[in-house]
Amino acid sequence: MIGLFDSGVGGLTVVKELVRKYPGVDFVYLGDTARYPYGNKSKETVERYAVENAKFVIDRGAKLVIVACNTASSLAMDTLRAKYPDTPFLGVIKPAAELAVADSKKSVGVVGTRATVGSGIYEEVVKELNPKLKVLQKACPLFVPLVEEGMFQDQVTKMMVRRYLMPLRQKNVESLILGCTHYPFLQPLIERFMGKKVKVINSAEAVVDKAQKMNPDLFKVSEAPKQVIAFTDTSDHLDKLASKWLKKEIRAEKAVL
Ligand code: DGL
Hints:
Helix content: 40-55%
Number of helices: 12
Strand order of the largest sheet: 4-3-1-2-9-10
Structural class: alpha/beta
Distance between the termini: 19 Å
Radius of gyration: 17 Å
CATH architecture of the largest domain: 3-Layer(aba) Sandwich
CATH class of the largest domain: Alpha Beta
Bound molecules: D-glutamic acid
C-alpha cells in the first residue's frame, strides 16, 4: 500500500500519474480539505498537519509515503522522518529540480505557494545540482483556491496566470517548475502563456518513478486493488472535481484524523 497526502485535491495530480502507470496498485490518498490551504501557514502548523496526515495513511497500511505537496515537502520532511522512522517518505522537490536542471542552461523559474517559495528550497536544490543556474521564483497564492474551485479555464484564472507569470516570461526562463501539486490543473493555461520555448515541469511522473525504485514490490498489481481517496472534509463539489480529473467516478471517504 502506497500512501499519499496533500492539503486538498492537488496531490491527485500525482495519483493520476500513479494509476496511469500502475493501474492495479494499492494506494490511500488523503486530501486535507478541511484545513487547506497550507501555502500561507507557518512551518509549525504545516508540520503538525503533515504528521497527522502521515499517521492516517500509515494507519491504513502505507509502507511508503509520497508527500504529494510541495509545501509539506519544503517544511516538514525532517519532522516526518523523525516522527515515523520506520516509514520511508518521498518528497516532490528534488524530482522536479532534477528535471528542470536537465532542461536549462541559464535560468530556471519556480512557481509555488508563499511557504514553498519563502523556504528557498528550490533554489538550494537546483544550485546544488548546477551552481551556475539562476533561479527566479514567484509565489502564486491565488492559484490554489482557483484550482479547488475547479476554475481551470476561467477568465479570472487567465488574468492571474498573466499577472503572476509575466515577470518570469520577461526574464526568459528556460524551464518553469510547477512547485505546487495543484498547478498541473492549470498546466494548459500556463504553457500557453509561457510559450513553446519554456519547458513547464510537472514532477508527478518523476516522483512516481522514484517511488517505484524505492520499493518495487508495492507497485505490483494486486488482484482486487484497494484504492482509497479520502478528504478531511467531503462534498459533492470535491467528488465531481476528483471524478473529472481522474476520469473515474469518485466518492471520497470522510477522513477523521
Ligand atoms: N498542493 C500543495 C503544494 O504542493 C499545497 C497548496 C496549499 O494548500 O496551499 O504546495
